[in-house]
Amino acid sequence: MAGMKSIPFTVAKNEQFFDRLGDYIGDVFYDVLPEQGFELRDEQIYMAFQLEQAFKHKKTIFAEAGVGTGKTIVYLLYAICYARYMRKPVIISCADETLIEQLVKEGGDIDKLEKALDLEVDVRLAKARENYLCMKKLDPLSEYTEDEEILDVHDSVPDFVFDQGISMQSFYPYGDRKDYPWLSDKQWEQIGWDPLKQCATCDFRHRSAQTLHRDYYRHAQDIIICSHDFYMEHVWTKESRIREGQLPLLPEASAVVFDEGHLLEFSAQKGLTYRFNYQNITNVLTGYQGQDVREESLQLAEDIMALHDEWFDLITEIAIRVEGSNRLEIPRNPKMIEMAGRLEKMVQELLEQLVFDAELFTMDAYHTKIIEEYLEFFTYGLSIFLKDDEGVYWLEEDGDESSLVIMPRLVEDVLREEVFQKNIPFIFSSATLSQNGDFSYIARSLGVDSYESFSVESPFEYEKVRTIKEHSYTDETEKFEGIAQQLQDNEGHSLVLFRSEEEMQTFRKWAEPKKWSFDLLFEGDKEISELVRTFQLNLSSALCAYHLWEGLDVPGESLAQVIIASLPYPPDDPVFKAKRKHAKNPYEEIDLPYMQLRLKQGIGRLIRTEHDKGIVHIWKQA
C-alpha cells in the first residue's frame, strides 16, 4: 500500500521482527509510558507477553483481564505494530457503538497512545448501514416536514450530492449518525438507512453517505474499528458480494481483536438471520409483473402475493408479545406451516418460470438478477422455517412495518469454517470470558477448537472503594420510589440500568411528573455518544439506559452510583427459548450465566480508575 506508515522501531537485517517488538513493548511499558504519567501494571506486562505469543504464532487467544488492567492499551500497541509489519490493517470488533466511541474519542485510549508515543495512528470506523443518512428518505421529506432539526440536516448535505456534474475527486464522507447528535432516535428513523430502499438501483448510490464512508475506511493503514454485528455481516456476505462484483464490506485483515468478545455469539446469530419484511416480496413481484413476461408467470406472481398476505396475516394474528424484547413469539401452528410449504413450492415454480422468461430476452437482465436472488433468499429462509428444530423464528414490529425473522439455531459450525480457519491471530478481550476460569463454554459456542487463554484480576481494591447494597421490592411503585430516593440522596451522579426498554419507559412515565433537583437523561433522546458526553460533563445529572451494561467508561464524579433496577435475566423470547430447549438444566446453563455476566458488566461501570469510589444498588423482587 502506497505511503504505508513505518513500524515505530527499527529492525536490522540480521534481527527478527518479534524480537525487536518485544524490546520495544518493554521500553514502552517500563520507560516511555511511566514518564508520561501512566501507571505500570504487572497485569499489563503479563498480558503483553501472552499476546506477543498469539501474534507471533497466529493463535486464537482468550485474554480475560479485569477493569483497570490496561488491556486496551496492550492490544492497541500490538495491533498498530503488527498492522505495519504485515502491511494490512488490524480489525478491532467491538460490542457496540458505545465501546467504539470510548476508543476513538478525544482523551480515549488511541488518543492517549498517540500523544504518549508521538505516533499518528490511521484509525477509521466501519459502521452498520443504519448509521448513515438515506437521501431517498431525507430529500422528499425536506419538501413537506416542519421539523427544523431535520431541515438542518438537509441543509448540511454537501453540494456534490445534488450536483451530478461535480468530479468524484471532490467527494468526501458525510452523513454519519454521529454528525447529527441533536436528533433523537425517532427522528433518525425518518432519514436513516432503510432496508426497504433498493440501494443497488438508487440515483444517489455513488454519492451516498454509506458508499463514501465505505470507500474511506477500506483504505485504513493501521486499524479499522467496527461493531460485532458489522463484522459478522461482512463474514456472511463476503462470498455473495464477490460473486456480484462488489467489494466485501471489510478488506483483508492481518489480525482481528474482539473487544467484549463474549458477545460475539449473539452477533453471529443475528448476522445469519433471514429477514422478510411484509412488503418486500410484494415490491419484488410487482417489479416482476412490470416486465414483459408471459401470462402464466403473471398469474403465479399474483397467487404468491395473495398467499403471502394471508400467511403474514395469520402470523401477525397468532404472534405473542414478549416483555423485554422486540421479538414476538410465533407458536408453531399447523395451518401456518402448511401455508409456508405451499408458498415455498410456488416460489420454486416461479424461479423456474423466471429462467424461461429470461431466455425469451423480454426481461431486463439486471431486474432478472435482483428478482432471482431475492426469490432464492426467500425459499432458503422458508426451508429453515419448515424444518422443525433447525431454526429459530420470530416477528418484529416497527411502527406499521412487520418482519418475519428466521435464524439458524447454531452458528458454531459456520464460524469454525468461515472465521477461525483463517491463519491469522484472533484476540478475544474482556473482563468476562470464562466460567470460573474455564473457557470451554465460549470456545465451543464459537466453534474455536484450538486456543490459548489466561485470566488476570483487576488491580483495584474493590472492597475499599465500592459498596454493594441489595434491596427487595414487592411492586413497581415501591421500587421506583426507592430508586428516586437513591438518586436524590446522591444528587444525580448516577447510572440507572434497566433490564429492558419497556422497564425504562415505565420508569420515565412515572418520573416525569416528579420534581428533580438534577437532570434526568434517557437513552434514545440523543445520539448515544453525545448523550454520554452530556452525562459526563453535567455533574448534576443521572443517565437512564438499557443498553449500557457494557462499554460505558465514565470515570470521576459524574458516575458515583450505579442503580440496577432489575436483575438482567435474558428475555423469554424465541432465541433464548431455543437455547433453553436444548439445555439439560436451562436455568443453570442459560439464564444464570447470562444474568451473572451482565450483572458483573453492569457493576463494572462504577469503578473505572484507581481514584473512583461509589455505591452499587441492586433491586430484586421479593
UniProtKB/TrEMBL annotation:
Q: Which Pfam families match?
A: Helicase_C_2
A GO MF annotation of the entry reads: helicase activity
Question: What keywords would UniProt list here?
Answer: ATP-binding, Helicase, Hydrolase, Nucleotide-binding
> Which residues are in the Helicase ATP-binding domain?
30-353
Instruction: Write down the InterPro entries for this protein, in alphabetical order.
Output: ATP-dep_Helicase_C, DinG/Rad3-like, Helic_SF1/SF2_ATP-bd_DinG/Rad3, P-loop_NTPase
Q: Does Hydrolase show up as a keyword for this record?
A: yes
The residue stretches assigned to a coiled coil in this entry are none
* Record flagged with keyword Kinase: no
Family membership = Belongs to the helicase family. DinG subfamily.
Q: What is this protein called?
A: ATP-dependent helicase
Q: Which organism is it from?
A: Oceanobacillus neutriphilus
Q: Which gene encodes it?
A: dinG
